[in-house]
Amino acid sequence: MHDIADIHYRIQANPGSTEPLDIRLGSQAMEAAGASERPTKRARLQDEPQVEVALPEVPSATSVAIPINDEQYWFEDGNVIIVAGAVQFRLYKGPLMRHSSLFANMFSAPQSSAPSVKPVQDQDVPIFYVAETPDDIRQFLRCVTLGNDIRVDINYETASFDQISTHLRMGHKFQIIDLLRPTLRFLKRLYPSNLDDYSKRMVSWNAYSPRLAIIAINLARLTNTPAVLVAAFLDCTTLDVDTLVEGTKGEDGRQEKLSEEDIRRVLVAKTELIKADAQDAIRIFSPDAAPQCPIPSQCIPLLLLTLKNVHNPPSFSPVWSLSWKTRRPLVWQRLCPKCAAMLDQRISTARRALWDRLPVIFGL
User: Fold this and answer.
1) Alpha-carbon dihedral 252, 255, 256, 260, rounded to 10 degrees
2) Rounded CA gap, 188 and 232, in Å?
């Protein structure tokens, strides 16, 4: 069996000629020609077309180290091998084809045209090289190799975001709808598209961090899920500039970064949100007492004083969770209940109006 790297195709065709195409295979063709050195190229006729046939980019035995067998997913009677990095998995085609339209198309198509893979033939089973890491493939296989149904072995309340994002990437990559649905549902819960859900979302989730918004934006771009973008971008406005530019690293070492365009979106939005916060402060602390205020002589001066000193720290901020009630709690304590309720309503109205403007602010 010849080394793949030693096989060279050259097809020469002469229009109108009845001679068969000249196909030569490396050293074997050279030996057949009785040449001790590389044959001299024959003169090319002026009107003679030449067609170069490109081989698939297949790793050769001399350029790629022999991968090791995965301890868990290596079945001696498997009928396909998938190589991810330095690890190879010997599996059964059936479950993969049943759950993944990509694998179904890949295994049924001629190897030279299989999508997103680099196939070679080794002994009695085909081998397919994929770009994913071994851990990604293991996460994927835990869901599809056993039984007829997709098994999502993950508790979304306790799972790490890396596990969730891996399932989402694998579901998208391998076109597994039953794996995509639960992971997208979770992503939309964490980054909801409406204000009410955002206000009461799972901020108590033990694995939550604003840094995850960077990964969420990339996942939304990958899967064309724009519904999560507003909330994810809003969370990114809480990040410092270094984190925003450098990105965040997952448990598997994968570095996640925003595109330059998305970084600009966040930086521009921060400025706009600070402006909006200042404008909202003027409306919220407008020195007008509630219609049924029992002590306007006390409440109005308090509102006026608060408005006059609104620029004092803690002052204007793009951070959504940092409401004016959080920044000026003593004002609410000193106002009468009617005026305090009026300020709550003003904050709610301002928040809802700003939320509706967020798609424009983020350029979405």
Assistant:
1) -170
2) 10
Q: What is the pTM of this model?
A: 0.67
**DSSP three-state, residue 39:** coil
Residues 235/213, Cβ–Cβ less than 8 Å: yes
Q: Which two tokens stand for residue 355?
A: 């939320």
Q: What is the DSSP string of 99-133?
A: H-HHHHHHHHS-GGG-TT-EEEEETTEEEEEESS-
Written as six digits, the tokens of 217 are 């934006």
Instruction: Name the residue with higher pLDDT: 299 or 21.
Output: 299
DSSP for 205-241, written as a single string: -TT--TTHHHHHHHHHHHHT-GGGHHHHHHHHTTS-H
Quick one: which of 326, 320, 172, 159 has its CA closest to 233?
320
66's tokens: 């022999």
For residue 234, count CB atoms less than 10 angstroms from its CB and return exposed for 0-12, middle for 13-18, buried for 19 or more: buried
Query: What DSSP letter does each residue of 286-343 carry, written as one string?
Result: -S---TT-S-HHHHHHHHHHHHHTTTSSS-----TT--HHHH-HHHHHHS-HHHHHHH
- 3-class SS at 276? helix
Q: State the Cα angle at 244 between 132 and 131, rounded to 5°.
A: 10
- Local confidence band at 266 (pLDDT 50, 70, 90 cut-offs): very high
